[in-house]
Amino acid sequence: MNSQQPIANQSEATVEPVPPSLDSSTSKLVYVYLSSSESATIDELHAALDVEKLTLYPILNTLMTANLVTQSEGRYSCQNHSICEMGS
C-alpha cells in the first residue's frame, strides 16, 4: 500500500510573510514574535528573544514608524493583530 493520505487532525498553518522593508534578522525576529503573540513588554521580548533592551528600543521604534507595531501602556503588539493571527 503506497497511498499517501493526510494524517488525521493535521492542521495546515499559514505564515504571515515578513515585510520586505525589514532588513535585519533581529527586526524580523521581533516582528515574527509579536505577530504570533498577543502583546509583549520590553522585558518579555528581552527574556524570550535574548535580545538586549538597548537593541529592542530602536527596532520597536522602526516597526512602529512602519505601522507594523503599536505600543500601548508599555506593551507592544502587531499593528493589526487580527490580520497577523489569520496569517499565523
Automatic annotation (TrEMBL):
InterPro entries with a match to the protein in the record: Tscrpt_reg_TrmB_N, WH-like_DNA-bd_sf, WH_DNA-bd_sf
Compositional bias (Polar residues): 1-13
Region (Disordered): 1-24
Signal peptide: none
Top-rank taxon, per record: Archaea
One Pfam family in the UniProt entry: TrmB
Residues in Transcription regulator TrmB N-terminal domain copies: 29-76
Gene3D superfamilies the UniProt entry points to: Winged helix-like DNA-binding domain superfamily/Winged helix DNA-binding domain
Segments crossing the lipid bilayer: none
Protein name according to UniProt: Transcription regulator TrmB N-terminal domain-containing protein
Organism (species): Halalkalicoccus jeotgali (strain DSM 18796 / CECT 7217 / JCM 14584 / KCTC 4019 / B3)
